[in-house]
Every structure is written in C-alpha cells, then in structure tokens.
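User: I'm curious whether this sequence folds into something compact or stays loose and floppy. Could you predict its structure so I can see for myself?
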Amino acid sequence: MKTKDVTSAPVLGLRVGEVVKVRSEAEILVTLDEKGELDSLPFMPEMLPYCGRQFTVYKVAHKLCDTQTRSGMRRMHAAVHLSGVRCDGQAHGGCQTACLIYWKEAWLKRVDPDGAGQSDGIPEPSSARCTLPLLQISTRKDPSPDGEERFSCQATELLRAAPECLPVRDLSQYTQDVRSGNVGVLPTVRSFFVALFNRIQDYSKRVLPKRLWFREGLRWGFVKGTATRTPTEHTDLQPGELVRIKSKDEIMKTLNKDLLNRGMGFEEEMSRYCGRGARVLRRVDRCIDEKTGRLLQMKNPCIILEDTVCSGAYNVNCPRSIYSFWREIWLERVGEPTS
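Assistant: Here's the prediction. I'll summarize afterward.
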C-alpha cells in the first residue's frame, strides 16, 4: 500500500503567526491514502472538529525529537502545529497526553488579510480513497499477542512519518528554526551549545575514566537521582489548584539513578520550572505508550500543569511542546494569593 508523496501535496512554506484555515473534510480525505495517512502521518478523527476553522500557526514542525528509540532528532516535511490545537484522545481510548496535533500543509489554506483562502491544487473530492469510517478503523493496530487492544495515532507513527535522522551538526535546522519564527537567534545559539555539551559529556563517559568526568558526566541541567527506593506521595491535587514546583535538590532525592520515580521520568528540561508556581490543568491516569500503542493505566495518577511544556531549550529546540508529567511528590499545594 503506497502513501502519497510529499512532493505531490501543496507546500505553503508557512511561518509562525500566519493565519490558516483547516480544509473541509472532503478536501482533506482526498489527500489521504487507504490508511488515512499522508506521507505516513495519520489524519485522526480528533482532528475533524477543526475542519473549516481558522487558527494561527504556533510552530513549524520541521523536526521532532524521537521519544520512542531515543535516536535524536528527526526531520519532518511540510507540517505545522496550530495554536491551542491538542488531541483530546476521544478516538484513542481517552488518552490524556494532550499532544499537539501535526497538520500537513496540504490540509490547510493560507488566509489572506481580507479573509479569503488562497487557491490550491487539491484534486476533486470524488477521487478520495479514504472515508470517515476508515479513519475510525485506522485508530487501531493489530491486537497484541495476548489480545490487548492497541492504538495507532500520530505519536505512535512519528518514526514512519519522519524516518530521516537529523544530526546535531546539521546547521540547516538552526537556520530553519529562526527563519520559520519558531525561536530567536539567541535561544537557537544556546540550544546548539547545549547539544554540543551533551555530546561531549556522553563521549567522555565512554572514553575517560570516571575521575576525569566533568560534573560526573551529567547532561546539561545536571539532574542526578540519589534514591535507592523512590518515595511516593498522594495529595489529591485537583484542576485549578495552585502549586509550587519543588526545588531541583528536593526532586532529585525522589529519583533513582535512571531519573525515575515509580517508573515516571524527570527530565533535565523539567528542571527549568523548579521553584515556580503553576496551576493544575488536569490529573492523568491513562496514556498511550508510543512504542507499543497500548493504553497504559497509571497506578499513581500524575499531574499536568498549565503552561509547563517541554520548550526544547535543552533538546535542539524541538517544537513538539509536550506537556510535562509531574508526580504529586514533586509539587506542593499553596494558597491562593491575597489581594
């Protein structure tokens, strides 16, 4: 089964801040193959309610971090993220990860200042090979050997949609970061040197004796787990409550040597929020495992906080803006500020 070639779809060359209109269902279906994909990127049922609506480009998704195999950055073609448009997981078992949705430029129209969409080369809807029922069917993979239901979504298929590795030394990605409007010059320079530092640290751990490692060979952010048995805490935080993210030193005491607390990771990027106040957005007790497609049920629910996403500052400016998952033991409830 062959997917449509990226070169066959309109390329708009969108930038951050531009206003676009999501095409109609009929226009989008004609761009998809029999699996409901364009260039191996699924168009998910959760995206249908946005058809016909206007949005602002939030980030140009020209690259992404590989969170499945940790191979580094991957190159993506002709795709963007739209402001505030995240997956609600309704067609995927109620997954609560709330990933930013990928939009191929072929699914969008640039909006002129007068509000009119530009003309394009999309074929007639009568040539569509995908239907709405097929979109629903495509949300499932084959069951696991034990019969467990498995899901397929944009997150599980990202390595197919972005098969090309993007080395840190490829300077074109940094140029595109700036030209697209994703980040400014100074954050781009910083992200390059952070990536270079991490490469040196990883290399030194492979070839140098431990006594010669700089800062114990830790990656930028310098997070080190010290617990042999990771503690837990249940505070029953609820959406809307105000919390303070504990200090990095306090959190490191709850992590093991792999930076895990009861199986959940604390990454260096998250340390940038330590000591700050934030408001609880939601409790999360189920999410899709990107590697297997299984819907995981968390024994200990985690917390998502408003406006605390991975900005990619320590990860080559990855634009995915994934919500960070927080253990309750990493947060402390604070009272509402008084006037």
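Summary: Residues 17 and 57 are 5 Å apart (CA to CA). Confidence is low (pLDDT under 50) at residues 1-7.
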